[in-house]
Amino acid sequence: MKKLVIAAGTGFLGQVLVNHFQNKYDELVVLTRGKSRVSNTIKYVNWDAKTISGWENELENADILINLAGKSVDCRYTKSNKNEILTSRINSTKILNEAVLRCQNPPRHWLNSSTSTIYRHSEDKQMTEENGEIGDDFSMNVAKAWEKFFFETETPKTLKTALRTSIVLGKNGGAFIPLKTLTKFGLGGKQGNGNQFISWIHEHDFARAIEFVIEKEMTGKVNIVSPQPITNKDFMSNLRTELHVSIGIPTPKLLLKLGAKIIGTEPELVLKSRNVIPERLIKNAFEFRFKTLEEALKNLVK
């Protein structure tokens, strides 16, 4: 009997993984803040992501644990939101460490969410796991603390992997939907100067890359990104092409900051240059189905 536990598995990325893995495991358990229930053979178990309350029993005899818990960064970076962004990641990771250590037969492999935002803004250098440069601002410090709390507790019977994931492009959630909407309304021009890089990955390759990490028992830090980051202006140009939209009004930096304030988000999410390469996946011969943005967009738009 193969068992997979996904912590915080009801959001966009969680559902991508549930859809991918539900026929590959005999038992699939999702830890959720919602009510405990069983739906389509998937067992949903309530947890609060910070205290031991019975959900930890689901980790017993599990093969794989995947943790996706953490407040969305798509918000204003107020003091309150900053605190919740950090603590939601730290608390869930700490309590899972405690739960894993309590198990008689703990999960064989634990994959914990991280982010490619851990690397500095870069228009000049491609960041790999080995040579990537980690900077010092709020987002990077959250990522560093997240990984520190994950790895600093030794779990002798459980392998550990931090998934430094980029923007995941999918049909039913994430960044693709609002970008598609803006483009259809003629607002799909470059954002800022358009030179900032976007590291992205198609939702199917996201799930397949995680399955690959599990199969190869890859530990440590792994960049879950496509092999070809692309500039913002080229990203938006490709999106306009696939949507057959000829006009793309650009958004200057000043207007972008104003718009971000109005809709309650941060301009950093668009303006930061994430120039990240999946070196470890490539060296281990992972085959991307969507290597280029053109291929990914054709699939998502059709």
Structure description:
The protein is of the alpha/beta class and 302 residues long. It has one domain: NAD(P)-binding Rossmann-like Domain (Rossmann fold), CATH 3.40.50.720. Strands 3-4-2-1-5-6-7-11 form an 8-stranded mixed β-sheet, sandwiched between helices. Strands 8-10 form a two-stranded parallel ribbon. Helix 1 crosses helix 5 and helix 6 runs parallel beside helix 10. The protein is globular. It starts with a strand and ends with a helix. The mean pLDDT is 97.
Distance between the termini: 38 Å
Question: Going across the major beta sheet, what is the strand order?
Answer: 3-4-2-1-5-6-7-11
Number of DSSP strands? 12
Broad structural category: alpha/beta
What is the overall pLDDT average? 97
**Structure annotation, total helices:** 10
Major beta-sheet overview: 8 strands, mixed
Question: In a nutshell, what does this entry contain?
Answer:
By secondary structure, the protein is of the alpha/beta class.
List key phrases describing it:
single chain, 302 residues, two-stranded parallel ribbon, 10 helices, 37% helix
Give the helix/strand layout:
Layout: E1 3-7, H1 12-21, E2 27-32, E3 37-39, E4 42-46, E5 64-67, H2 79-102, E6 109-115, H3 138-152, E7 159-165, E8 167-169, H4 176-184, E9 197-198, E10 200-202, H5 203-216, E11 220-224, E12 230-231, H6 232-243, H7 253-263, H8 268-271, H9 279-283, H10 293-301
Parallel strand pairs: 1-2, 1-5, 2-4, 5-6, 6-7, 7-11, 8-10
Antiparallel strand pairs: 3-4, 9-12
Helix pairs in contact: 1-5, 2-3, 4-6, 6-10
